[in-house]
Automatic annotation (TrEMBL):
GO terms for molecular function: porin activity; voltage-gated monoatomic anion channel activity. It is a multi-pass membrane protein. Keywords: Chloroplast, Ion transport, Membrane, Plastid, Plastid outer membrane, Porin, Transmembrane, Transmembrane beta strand, Transport. It comes from the Eukaryota. Coiled coil: none annotated. This is Uncharacterized protein. The lineage of its organism: Eukaryota, Viridiplantae, Streptophyta, Embryophyta, Tracheophyta. GO terms for cellular component: chloroplast outer membrane; etioplast membrane; pore complex. Voltage-dependent rectifying anion channel that facilitates the translocation between chloroplast and cytoplasm of phosphorylated carbohydrates such as triosephosphate, 3-phosphoglycerate and inorganic phosphate (Pi) depending of ATP to triosephosphate ratio in the plastidial intermembrane space; in high triosephosphate/ATP conditions (e.g. photosynthesis), export of triosphosphate from chloroplast (outward rectifying channels), but in high ATP/triosephosphate conditions (e.g. dark phase), import of phosphosolutes (inward rectifying channels). GO terms for biological process: regulation of monoatomic anion transport. Belongs to the plastid outer envelope porin OEP21 (TC 1.B.29) family.
Length: 166
């Protein structure tokens, strides 16, 4: 189970976040996310069931459903990712991610996507690797700057978010 503490500039409240991915077989998985607001004590989360395809044209394609515990809503989801290595070692790459989420109850869909330049630095310190990301989300018209180490992640969009693995 992956756990982390999360704080962002918009909500200004600390969350304890946990997620677990259960592999059902080589292409099916169930992912559960949960969070606890340390200020109010409110809980929330999502449960996702997905099937992963690995066609030759793209790096991965996930199709499935998601249940949001907060809004008590079920939605269908599809997402794709393509990684284009820029260097032979693969340490510098261009990642393109896109997806679409459809809520049948509201009869409403929401597209999402991002184009990112990723740079991986192995052995940044004796025990830590670092990944630097710069990207753009055309649907939200937001640039992204992120620095992720083994235990600490800092993301900056229009607001900032700090995540610390526990």
């Amino acid at each position: 189970m992956e756990t982390s503490l999360r704080y962002n500039s918009e909500e200004k409240q600390l969350y304890l976040h946990a997620k677990e991915c259960f592999l059902i077989d080589s292409s099916f998985y169930l992912k559960a996310h949960g969070r606890l607001n340390t200020h109010t004590g409110l809980t929330g989360g999502t449960i996702q069931f997905r099937r992963r395809f690995t066609p030759k044209v793209i790096t991965s394609l996930d199709v499935g459903g998601k249940y949001d515990i907060d809004g008590k809503e079920f939605s269908y989801d599809i997402q794709a990712k393509k990684t284009l290595p820029i260097t032979e070692t693969g340490l510098l790459s261009l990642d393109i991610r896109a997806g679409y989420n459809f809520n049948p109850g509201l009869k409403f869909g929401k597209p999402r996507g991002v184009v990112e330049l990723n740079y991986k630095i192995f052995n940044f310190t004796e025990e830590q690797d670092v990944r630097l990301r710069v990207g753009y989300n055309p649907f939200q018209r937001v640039t992204l700057l992120a620095n992720k180490g083994e235990q600490l992640e800092f993301q900056c969009r229009l607001q900032w978010e700090l995540e610390c693995d526990v």
